[in-house]
Amino acid sequence: MTDTNAGNRRLSAQAKARLGFFARYATIIGLFAMIVLFSFLSPNAFPTVYNFTNVLNQASLTMIIASGLTMAVIVGELDLSVGFAASLHGILVTGLIVSTGLPIPVAIIVVIAAGALVGLVNGLVVTKLKVNSVIATLGIGTILTGLAFAYSAGVPIVSGVPDAFLDISLGRWLFGIPNNIVFMVLVVLALWVLVEHTPVGQEIQAVGGNPAAARLAGISVDRIKILGFVISGMCASLTGILLASRLGSGTASAADSYLLTAFAAVFLGSATLRDGEFHIFGTVIGALIIAFGFNGLNIFGAPTFSQYVLQGAILIVAVGLSSLGRSLAES
After folding, report:
1. Cβ count within 10 A of residue 304
2. Which spans are transmembrane here (predicted)?
């Protein structure tokens, strides 16, 4: 009986190890498998420098907004306002430039400050009023949608948008690299350094890991959570600005769909290399999986509805892998 029990324990440990390996590396393996498969099926269109650059360019805004969302999720909260906020900020920046006549740099600074303010409000409602972050940010997001329609009267702001503003997203200022890719790299690197290599980042991870223990260690949990929301709001505002620049207009619902994409990327990222922990590098991998998946569907002429099916399926799989990783880490 003792030998049988020992054997069962060894099998259980081996099974746990296999599951742990799958949970940590499935996303990376899946990304490379997807690239290899699409390259084999479409060797002339998919595995080209032009296409890969296009994928990164298309994924750049998702990575920016998802990286900001990751900061809120790391501290243990959810920010469901990011898509609605990005839509509002896209309208706001174009309106300030076209209607108010503000110089483009000033308008951008004002809008990013507005994004920080939205994040601050989210953080205060969650930490001081003790409203659940899902309810709080969904409510704030709905308010932002109303403000977007009020500001634009439901009509896209198109006329009078200067070429210099369009060039922010569509230009290639550095070695022929699309500007949005450059902005994405800067944001991702800045947030990665902040979380992984600064004292504030250690506090952020401590609050996300165990708020009660972090509070006992002298960390201001509320301050750190508010910081997470502020960074999320600023990244949402930057996404809205770059999207408006790419589209050449401000539209009331232009960025709403980024909410689901951002959450899918964040939860896929939590299943990458770590046992269900949210982190910036993982979010980048998650965004790439989504981007390459959409790109492959487009190349093969798949109908539009398939993108929604893929995105929903990815979100379900991502949450499942994240939960599996956390369960294995705790067992």
Report:
1. 8
2. 21-43, 55-75, 82-100, 106-127, 134-153, 173-195, 226-245, 257-273, 280-302, 308-329
Q: Quote the pLDDT of residue 67.
A: 97
H-type helices in 161-279, by residue range?
163-170, 179-197, 199-209, 211-216, 221-247, 258-270
One-letter amino acid of 281: F
Contact status, residue 70 vs residue 205, Cβ threshold 8 Å: no
Q: Which of 170, 163, 188 is nearest to 265 (CA)?
A: 188
The neighbouring-strand residues paired with 157 are: 250
* C-beta separation of 207 from 76 below 8 A: yes
Looking at the predicted structure, is the pLDDT value of residue 288 above 80? yes
pLDDT tens by residue, 31-53 = 888 899 889 988 899 999 999 99
**Angle, to 10 degrees, between the axis of helix 133-152 and the axis of helix 82-95?**
30
> In the chain, what are the domains?
24-330 (1.10.3470)
Angle at 152 between CA 155 and CA 154, to 5 degrees: 40
The model's pTM is 0.90
| Torsion sign over Cα 85, 87, 92, 93 | positive
C-alpha 192: how far from chain center: 13
